[in-house]
Amino acid sequence: xxxxxxxxxxxxxxxxxxxxxxxxxxxxxxxxxxxxxxxxxxxxxxxxxxxxxxxxxxxxxxxxxxxxxxxxxxxxxxxxxxxxxxxxxxxxxxxxxxxxxxxxxxxxxxxxxxxxxxxxxxxxxxxxxxxxxxxxxxxxxxxxxxxxxxxxxxxxxxxxxxxxxxxxxxxxxxxxxxxxxxxxxxxxxxxxxxxxxxxxxxxxxxxxxxxxxxxxxxxxxxxxxxxxxxxxxxxxxxxxxxxxxxxxxxxxxxxxxxxxxxxxxxxxxxxxxxxxxxxxxxxxxxxxxxxxxxxxxxxxxxxxxxxxxxxxxxxxxxxxxxxxxxxxxxxxxxxxxxxxxxxxxxxxxxxxxxxxxxxxxxxxxxxxxxxxxxxxxxxxxxxxxxxxxxxxxxxxxxxxxxxxxxxxxxxxxxxxxxxxxxxxxxxxxxxxxxxxxxxxxxxxxxxxxxxxxxxxxxxxxxxxxxxxxxxxxxxxxxxxxxxxxxxxxxxxxxxxxxxxxxxxxxxxxxxxxxxxxxxxxxxxxxxxxxxxxxxxxxxxxxxxxxxxxxxxxxxxxxxxxxxxxxxxxxxxxxxxxxxxxxxxxxxxxxxxxxxxxxxxxxxxxxxxxxxxxxxxxxx
Amino acid sequence: xxxxxxxxxxxxxxxxxxxxxxxxxxxxxxxxxxxxxxxxxxxxxxxxxxxxxxxxxxxxxxxxxxxxxxxxxxxxxxxxxxxxxxxxxxxxxxxxxxxxxxxxxxxxxxxxxxxxxxxxxxxxxxxxxxxxxxxxxxxxxxxxxxxxxxxxxxxxxxxxxxxxxxxxxxxxxxxxxxxxxxxxxxxxxxxxxxxxxxxxxxxxxxxxxxxxxxxxxxxxxxxxxxxxxxxxxxxxxxxxxxxxxxxxxxxxxxxxxxxxxxxxxxxxxxxxxxxxxxxxxxxxxxxxxxxxxxxxxxxxxxxxxxxxxxxxxxxxxxxxxxxxxxxxxxxxxxxxxxxxxxxxxxxxxxxxxxxxxxxxxxxxxxxxxxxxxxxxxxxxxxxxxxxxxxxxxxxxxxxxxxxxxxxxxxxxxxxxxxxxxxxxxxxxxxxxxxxxxxxxxxxxxxxxxxxxxxxxxxxxxxxxxxxxxxxxxxxxxxxxxxxxxxxxxxxxxxxxxxxxxxxxxxxxxxxxxxxxxxxxxxxxxxxxxxxxxxxxxxxxxxxxxxxxxxxxxxxxxxxxxxxxxxxxxxxxxxxxxxxxxxxxxxxxxxxxxxxxxxxxxxxxxxxxxxxxxxx
Lengths: 619, 615
Hints:
Chain A is of the alpha/beta class.
């Protein structure tokens, strides 16, 4: 788990929720489809705890009716009952562990499925407002906590309540006066137990928080090792670090000894009662009101009552956090997707037509405008290059075009019709996109390319790779197309990832192609391959490119310089250069930089010459 | 002038290097030094606590047999003996509770204390390992060791070692107690114990394996989830929601199935062992009851036996679990020792320990360098002389040896041939601490720490710096005005939770950091690649200020930054192919420098042509 996610979890754990009927009802609703399972483990746990108390009672019977009366046959009789109940109890133990455990897994499975599926439907805006770490915590730890409450929470509290109840019943049967006295101390024990749990949990949280800071310090120190060494910061760092470990030490130590104090305290209260029972019970025996077996039974009922009380305290203190988790889950599931199909949406037959932005405004929830009064008409097959500073609004234009977001004001028309009247899927499945930081999925190269078109056969995948210029490097990989790319593709270089995502877009046969060029430099050969792949892709398609490379910019039919959410300049390369404005400055700077990078690498000089001549020839 | 403070290793309480042992148990024992007494005390407290519990049942026996049965009273009446016995129970419970608490507290003190100093040691140790160790060890792997493995050791001391002790003590004490009541009864009560122990070890080994499978599947699920969430734009752009749902469904269901297997194992083990233990107990009960009927044992003995036998039998099941889990602690010990055994870079060793700052006169004589794998020379016969205050430019392609050359100066790496003299004394005779004090490094993309900007600038000065001085450095580095635009000014946090600085801003903060350090020798990685024109001019100005009166090595990528140098070294494949000033080098028409220069001018010409064409 990443450090971020862990920190988020620690933070969120601090939220507790009070029990309210609607939330409880809804949590209970999660059990509804599985009520037979719940009933099953409920009955079995009841059998287990009832039998536990009964066994103690049977021991009393052995003493009173067997030993005291010197009746061997009676002992055997009781032992037979005892033995068969041991078997019965074992069967019940098996059943409740299996039922509750599997049900817990099942509820987790259900919740995760529900959350994941809903996340797929949510709009991009939801993702920009919620950190990925937070969403991951929702699907992993929150579901775990809820399913634990619904299964082991119920198991433990049922067992505890049943255990206390049946013990009480047997005690009442043996001697009701003594039993009533014992009963008065149970609430005291409960309150103390709950107070302890709260304090222990608090210390645990402090310690976990310190722990994640320690991990952060390690991480930073390892990554910045060159600076640390160069500045001779070792001693100072160790001193600072000792402050962190000291904090963690105190919290964990405190949590540990509080835990160690917890049971003895509860035990001590039980002992007071025990002392009383022996004293009082002894008198009763003398008066003939109580048997020796009875006293023994009281002693063991009381001794073993600590465990159910401990369990109840735990369930109680964790329940509030589990309910907070459930509320977070429900909140996510209740969020409606912002971008969705209109009721009378029609299938978009083609995107190859006129695309028009008409006085489009866009702002996020904070209402700070990202795009203002943006108008643009694009003809089918045109290539539009978007240039300009970071944060100027280039990505927003592309996101709006893909309908990841919808305009806050104004209209976007495709083929004359407001694109919100089209079905979302029918727009998306005609778009091919290549991101600045190409995103691949774990799996093989082939699977990643096939993502563009799931029904493509191997030959088509390879064909697409060839068109995108990715084939040549793929076959040099040890396992070729079957090579695993690692988590998020991190076994491949940036350039290679880009080539694969190009191939993926080629395979999708999009009508509208969108590319966000990478700023990081890749080696010249890969660069040329990417360029060729892009050319192949743009042929006969409407394309929007957030461009950083000169050759891309120059090849565009139209260049838009986007600044502060508006078009600062637009036109062809030659037209814009003549203006000697924004574009001119951007271009000359970029031009110089690009050639310098190319020449700076001395040993690849020959290669660079080629790029230069290409660049000049292309003009 | 810098005041030279002796770099000393902070007073760490414990050195873990001697705990590196082939015998892992011995190593763990050595780690416990200083804490052994408290740990032994924890064990003794545990024994006292267990004994008190046992005596509760013995007292119960006395109560049943002597007081109730034979009317042997303490004091003169039943009432007074009942009071005494009642007090006895309470006293024993208090004893038991107190010592069980003490034992828990002492064990926690030991475990947390050892862990704390282990963490401190590892942090300190790792940052003192050589530069090449850091360069070749993945951060993730180290993090894993210093977090998970340290925690596994903590659990070894906090739970496992003491847990094994607890169960063994309970077993021995209660066995002896029952044995004293009746030997026959004692032996028949433990008939099935070996069986349970063996089976539980076998089971927990299996279940550990199944649990790892389950965790692995959970990890797969997390990856799928993470990739899906971070790649949401790709998913949406290709309209692959359904595909993603089915992929997640597969992993999710897989985890459900793995969980089912795990649960099935648990739901078999616990009731089956319940049956064995239950019948073991019942057998003892019946046997004991018949002995009591025959008068071989008293009723009080029988009652005591009922209580004692529970503590004899049931903990054994958990012994299997703990024994299996100790193997994790052992593996972690070995993994940590792999880090502990790494050689540190001695920071202070050096025959020559000058008082003041260096002058900055550097003489390279036939210097060669190759990595310890000895494959190929990274630097070959490099000779040149840098006089105090001079600027030396290093020009060459990636892999030509520029970075390796400057890495020799702070002794990040040791040259393998020839010699380097600083102020006439060989570099190897200086301590690393001294050299690093004299050298400042400004990298192209400098590493800043996730703390405030002020702390980042002060980082590495090793003394308290007044705010004015920090600001002066920031102004000289042309970053003061930028800092003031941030919401919290100098207190703005850098990094994830604070502001994200641009490459140029980071570089200028690093320049301020170096200005404050005031080194005699400067290493500049001068490739202002991803910054716009305005920033470039500002950085250049800041750099020029920084270079004043310092011997400066510039790792250069372009002619402009090289031209001002007093000496230019053109490097190719680890060798100096050309050396001289800009003017001198330009004269060599066939030289590499001239070629690079020509290209640079060609760029300007091309740009002109380009624009002319557009017009």
